[in-house]
Amino acid sequence: MTIHAGIFPRELEDEAIYIFREVAAQFEKPVLLFSGGKDSITLVRLAQKAFYPAKIPFPLLHVDTGHNFEETIKFRDELVAELGLELIVRYVQDSIDQQKVTEETGKYASRNVLQTVTLLDAIEEFGFDACIGGARRDEEKARAKERIFSVRNDFGQWDSKKQRPELFDMLNGRINLGENVRVFPISNWIELDVWNYIKEEKLAIPSIYYAHERETFERDGQLLPFSSFINITEDETITTRTVRFRTVGDMTCTAAVESEAVEIDHIIEEILSATVSERGARIDDKRSEAAMEKRKQTGYF
Amino acid sequence: MDVLKIATAGSVDDGKSTLIGRLLFETNSITTDKLQAIEASSKKKGLDYIDLSLLTDGLIAEREQGITIDVAHIYFSTPTRKFIIADTPGHFEYTRNMVTGASNANVSMILVDARNGVVEQTFRHFYISCLLRIPNVVVCINKMDLVGYSQTAFEEIQTKFMAFAEKVKFEGQQISFIPVSSLYGENLTASSVSMPWYTGAPLLSLLEEVTIDEQLPDEESRFPVQYVVRPKSEEFHDYRAYAGKVASGLLRKGERVVVLPSGQETTIAKIEKFGREIEAAQAKESVSILLEDDVDISRGDMIVPFAQLPKQGRQLDATICWMDKKPLRVGGTYLVQHGVNISKAKISALTNLIDVVTLEANDTISALQLNEIADVQLKTAKEIFYDSFADNKANGSFIVIDEQTNATVGVGLIK
User: Fold this and answer.
1) Which of A170, A188, A268 to probe by mutation at the B interface, max B CB count within 10 Å?
2) How far is the C-alpha of A223 from the C-alpha of A227, rounded, in Å?
3) Same domain? A137 vs A257
4) How high is the ipTM of this complex?
5) pTM of the entire predicted model
């Protein structure tokens, strides 16, 4: 049996807009965590819809690892300018310079884990009480257990055993001083829903989601983008291939897939026939079986 | 494309995880990397088969103990429908998680091991399905291969289940029984050749065909105001809209409405969705409503059609399920969140503590412990505009919040 592309279930949009409005009503200082990836682009559109014709009543926060795809940063700046949004950027490099974190070394060095510290510092600096993120429950097994309003203690930690029950559509965002809530409006969307939504809403996305030529090398059965941020070993050879990215993270931990997809319909077809999941292209999840749950316990989103 | 929400519950041994795993597998919803990951974990645990429960038991503690503790959400689609399974634990200690997972369900899927027949957990799960008024219950009698695909065994379980069900089911609730074998994939996505005596549809067809009838036919319209949109920009200088999700019923442009609690009457001037005008908004739609007159409205107020007033008052009678280690006590004060409206409340009486297996009631109680279900009477500080849960789910339920910890400690279903 094959899955058909189908159409986007509008009920999911209504639910997400409801969640956005609850955030604006229940919290003093919300912020939208924006990475420039397709999920956070979807969040921006939903936020626009929730408050239209008023502006989105909170800023975007980008935790910049410094290891970005330049296409994503260009896209981010254009989107912010076009919609007149407020953008806050905090840099992992600053956390390194302040000696709060130490850069990883070796072949697998990545700043993915380090960004948690930068995020927690930004939350404290601005006093954010709600951080809206584009995580989805279908992405990963620990995320499948997340609530829509996920309370974090004053160290930003997630305690899976102390989750608040969420009943019907009632969201309880009351917190104690110092705590914050991570909010996931597209919890119930799957990867395909996001793509169908981007298609139906005609949303612009960074060019790296489409097939393009890039210098890549093979590692552990995956294609990694070559960049000055990554340490490659002698036996790894760089080859130019036609690839695209299914997910956008750090350049050091996001694998590419060989693809000829230059239109959104091609992308959707590709996802329908894919035998590997979206997070299968994220090296950061492969560190251990419980990599995501462990990162969440320390404040990752 | 519509979305069907299914709640399942069960224990480790009834084959629930295998059944869900099978559904995912046969609808092409498991990817190779996820399958490889659980294959590796199964080996690490010393198993000689792929333990599909590892797909859904996502927490370290769950995999350690081999049980489901918290609700996991699982997604799959067929050409006609998107399905969301809330996979919940079946043990008594996790009743609150079962209630959480089932609160939004259209279908409750109950698993019974054909060798053991109905057990305590079967009753508990069915009782909660009735309490939450889930319109469709599908009882999967699993492991039919281990009882020789016996029609008699199937029918005996069905009879015993119905004997209990007749006492608690509500009018209009549909109960179906399917004999399955998750291990061999029988009666899941295709009809079984081993059980020609079963002439009903296989599970997946049944789930594809169930009517998603959340809207009761005579349900009245309720629009709780969630957020007031005031752009204060030059272009939209005098714009003022009331944003929210229609809780129930249908609201139309031009309709005469009443705003509660003020009781002021006005007319719906416009209904908008992202600047686009629509003629009517139905239940679950997130919209913005603009009114003809300047009325004082804030979050928590409710807009209802002129001739469809809800009940109103400061005293609520409800069935409550307690979800906190610290017991609920008569005389205690809490916050009650009814939709998006919050009020202080005091517990004035507690009666009818139900044993969900024997259905025995105990009236002499002064406290309600974690996972217990009883009737409660409470007084609210603010006036509440409500319906009974049986008439209107969205406007007939509330959560209880502990003011000290801010945790959600209970759920109430208004009588």
Assistant:
1) A170
2) 13
3) no
4) 0.93
5) 0.93
